[in-house]
Structure prediction request, 920 residues.
Amino acid sequence: MNSLISAAKANRLFWLARYVERVFLSLNAVKKYIDSDIDGSAESYKEFCGLLSIADSYADAKDFRKKFLYDKAAVSSVYRMLVNAFDNGIELREDITSESLSYIHLAMEVMEKCFVNSARLSDLQPVSDYMLSFWGSIDENVITLPKMNILRLGRRLETIDINVRLRTDWDSINETLKGGILTNVNMLPSVTDKDKALRLKELVESHSGENHGEDCAEIIACINQVFTARL
Amino acid sequence: MDSLITQRDSVNSWMFRYGVRFGIYKNGEFKEQIFPFDAIARKISGREWQRLERGLVQRVNALNLFLKDIYGGKKIVKDNVVPEDFVYSSKGYLPFCEGVTPSKEVWSHISGIDLVHGKDDEWYILEDNLRIPSGASYPLIAREITRNISPETFENNAVCDNRNYAQLLKNMMDYVKKDGINVILTPGRYNSAYFEHSYFAEKTGAILATGQDLHVEGDRLYYKTIGGDNQLVGVVYRRISDEYLDPMVFNADSLIGVPNIMQAYKAGNVAIVNAPGNGVADDKGIYYFVPKMIKYYLAEEPVLKNAPTYLPFYEEDRKFVLENLRRLVIKDVAEAGGYGVIFCEKLSDDKFNEIKNLVISQPRRWIAQEVVDFKDLPIFDGDRIVERKADLRAYVITGKETTVWKCGLTRFSRNPDSFIVNSSQGGGFKDTWVMDN
Amino acid sequence: MSELKFEYKSVSRFSSAVSGHAFLLRPKPYGDDSQRVKNFKIEIPQSKSLFWQKDSFGNDIAFSSIDGGHTEFEVRAVGAVEVVEGKKVTAFNPIFRYPSPLCFCDDEMAKFAAFYKADNAAQTVRNICAAVHERIIYTSGTTCVSTDSVRTFSQKSGVCQDIAHVFVALLRSVGIPARYVAGYVKGLTKSHAWTEAYYDGFWHGFDATENISQSKDYIKIAHGRDAADCPLNRGVFCGSVVEAVEIEIKVE
Prediction:
């Protein structure tokens, strides 16, 4: 397997990783939100949208639950995230292997079926399973280090992005990030802005949950600048 | 085969899982559909295969010699075996390739030869595809899947393994390549055969690139990487047709090609698989001359027959064609695949006379063939087994040697009345079992 | 023996910077027995290198690419040709007998050509030249670079390239091999196109736009089956820009 990467491929690897992770984390997040909503107010979906910067164009909580999952037109629906993962993945077969790609095909199939029946969230569990299988396949198959690093970077940046927005308990996040791709983030050849990468690392390591608003904004800004492949 | 047949539906779902698709444009919109797999394999005995193998190697060797001759000394034209009309009027003939000798003198690296099995038990060659024959990935992945879901089928049948196809491709590319890496050049994911491009890249370890990822600097071809390094390219297995390959030389509007790639090729710095200009040898008009080429270049009798073909260009043939037109098939030499094929038997009188006049006024444009009554193969139509027309595309790889892949693409038509089994016109495929006996 | 000096200059200006610019030019006069090229020089300030090859018709081609951004692309070529009188070009390629992508006939054209057929090829060529000159009115803006002979013939208007195409197509249909020629002419500031016909064992130049045979004032740059075989310049680049091209040719 070759280790050469064109700018277009680097970009796709990065966004493939981000979208796969975003699908997985979004399904988890919406599950938690629905659970808390059982005892909450009818408006609490608005807060959820606010945290994830999703434009609130929903009529009510019911409308939100359906559209956030299945709306083909909305940029931020889970459906679209998966389509985006698929669009990037399909052009990376030879880089990520047919096996890894097959989990995205399988997830798409589940998604399409659920879309037709507007199925319940619990019916989408296989999508979450396939996303995890995808990562398992990436780890199991021989993928050259430069490509692996771009995938890992995309995945972890997405983890940070979503969790920092959702104000997840930060200590546990920090624990998962330790020893990972972020440790040497500024050494990766695909990282175009080394200073921003270092700053990101510093922010993430020092972030404690206090000063949440400010940190959050800067972290997200850094994430968006760390990796920009010149096409 | 029983266990395979009971699990036939799962083969298609496994193919879905691996994204085995084929794109088509309907009303201007791109759609991907699966290429339906039929579980009843076509069996070809070891002995029958040996004969096919001999005939195919012979044919492809002669076609390679023809291409070498046409873009060189044109001896075959000077010796009046092939009229120059058929060379210079062929759309596939590229003057730009005159005098260019490809790496290791191989023109047709991957040849897809279409055959049918007649009811007289004879195999007939229907068409040679020496440009970008596609389709090998389908039986390749189908075998992978069927071996997995029904190992007992293969335990009980001595079927030659077909999974060396990628290795054949890779060896061929390594053999013809100049300094540099192996690249598969694709028009992009909206091409009908994109699955195949990416699958072969995965299996051969070549880089899958679009025109944008490649560029010519000086007279060398490079792959641009993210670090800014340029990687020299030694061989391009291109899945882009000649006319779009280089906007500086061919179609100036092409956005999928690589500007000046033809100069790098001409300078001998990169091998192109298959060589540009091959269209002159798989033209429907040139087809008529292939048996003559075999005698001319190899001094051998052709092992495999053409379907009986007449050339209205020759007066004697024209007379015969006009007298027997009702029972013949007329093919427009400028059209590819299943297009431009006219079965005169079914034409209305008006249409028939129109065709007749066209044959008289533009004899060079047509070939006429006897309708070959070819064998039906059993296929599943729901739970029922029905008989349908099927052909076989054999894949012949020419590198250091000329090798026939021990498999092939057996395509069948869905429509019981159709003789046309082209994948661009619907239908499905079967595995082709070359038996080891 | 006479000598013609020429200067060619083309400047492309882009409304904003372009990159990945590849180009291919046929900037050098055709060298053969009847026309010798002297003191040819070319300058392309934006390109660090220039590579040369010959295409299969014997035309010289120059090509290269410019990776970095630039807003201007300039080509300057100068030189002279010596027109050798009494020398004939006999080298023949049968390909010029056959229709080509831009030069072919429909039934009407074939009849038209047959009507002008004379006892000998020389007269036939002169007849057809005059007939084409009369039929196709020189008009710019009614055709484009890829307009074919049938289209031009039926709309009866076009520029020198189209007129040459119709002439070539008609000649081939009456069995006279013909080819398309691009070049410069004394007194014109743009490139010109004319036709060569093969009979009596060598090539003869005719300009149907002017209805004359090729004189000493013509510099042949390139030839092919039709214009698509021998464009004088082609280029592709990345960037969504407006390109303004100025070409200036001086022959004396």
Q: What stands out?
A: The mean pLDDT of chain B is 92.
